[in-house]
Each structure stands twice: as C-alpha cells, then as structure tokens.
Amino acid sequence: MAELLEARRLVQLVSVKEELLEYLLDLVQRSRQHPDLFLGASPRAAVAWLQAAKAQAWLQERDFLTPDDIKTVAPPLLRHRLILKPEAQLDGLKIDSAIASLLKQTPVPR
Fold this sequence. Notes:
CATH topology: Helicase, Ruva Protein, domain 3
Largest sheet: 2 strands, antiparallel
CATH class: Mainly Alpha
Distance between the termini: 38 Å
Oligomer: single chain
CATH architecture: Orthogonal Bundle
C-alpha cells in the first residue's frame, strides 16, 4: 500500500507546461465539435486524461509531460467516454478512428 501511495505522490509531481494544458483542453473542446461524435469528452474526462498522461510520463521515468504522453493514453482513456453519432456507426466508423482523427487534427505544441 505504501508503494502505491508513493507512486501516486510522484505522479502528482510530474510537471505540466501551460501549453500542454492548453493542448489537452483543445483536444477536449474539439472532441465536442467533432463531426462524427455525438458525445465528446467531459470535464471529468479532461481531468482523468491529464492524470493518465502524467502517470504515463512517470512510467517512462520522466518528471515532465510531453504531447506524446497525452496522445498515448488517449485511445484507452477515451474509448468508453466518446459516443459516435448513429450515422457514423452505420458508415462503419470505429471509435479509435475518431480518436485518431481528433489527435491528427489538433495542432501539437512545440
């Protein structure tokens, strides 16, 4: 239990630059406007996304967040949170394709 609590504490220490927070919020906003999505990411999804990305950075033995951390955790984090429009489902679109499209459309900070 102590190891788990220490890991949680260390994940919280991962630093996040302002432009990466803006990038994440841009992704969330764009998910709500995506033409194939009936339901985009919620504020709670944004918080979970940030925490998962920080954990990804920590698992990579870094104390700072990168855009790749945000992208890496996007599919497993968003799959059950986003809902495709019925017409997109009828066209055979899969949620992972919508997530990939979202990531591709959103400019990455440098």
